[in-house]
Amino acid sequence: MESPKKNYPSYSRTDSSKVVMKDNEWKEVLSPEVYYVARQKGTERPYTSKFEAFKEAGTYYCAVCGNALFKSDTKFESGCGWPSFYEPISKGSIIYLPDNTLGMKRTEVECGRCKSHLGHVFDDGPPPTGLRYCINGVVLDFEKAKEAEKKYEGKH
Q1: Among residues 34, 37, 56, 74, which one has the fewest Cβ atoms lying within 10 Å of its Cβ?
Q2: Within a 10 A sphere around the Cβ of 15, how many other Cβ atoms?
């Protein structure tokens, strides 16, 4: 999938330094949809993400900063309407925060590099972790696995 997000000044798949920007700077560089979810802790409508039923092999990144978040082999069909994963790519890729809004006790997940809101994690996922990272697709970017590209190219 193409990524217009690569134009964001904070976007890098190799830089692991923390991204710190003021709210007005984020508002200038992010699309309204990404800004709403990433910076205002919004939620996209269920079943609207291009990644909800997406099955390509590769890596999911933060659409705001390029931080690696999830491998495609940890994605599963949860039926909740948002892309779901059972494990992040690394311990530092996700930040966990208590979220008691809307009268619920939940755990919010943010990008470990730029602190963009990604979604929530629940304890009703599959083995081996039992977790379900319910992630807004608008804040995800994807890169197809190199091996998958080679296999695909070999069939033509």
Answers
A1: 56
A2: 13
The closest of 53, 71, 52 to 61, measured between CA atoms, is 71
**Is 134 annotated as catalytic?**
yes
Q: Which of 150, 142, 147, 152 is nearest to 1 (CA)?
A: 142
pLDDT in tens, 49-76: 999 999 999 999 999 999 999 999 999 9
Name the one residue in this structure whose structure tokens are 């779901």: 84
Cα 93 from chain centre: 10
Reference 76, options 44, 143, 124, 19; nearest CA is 124
Domains of the chain (ranges, CATH numbers): 4-145 (2.170.150.20)
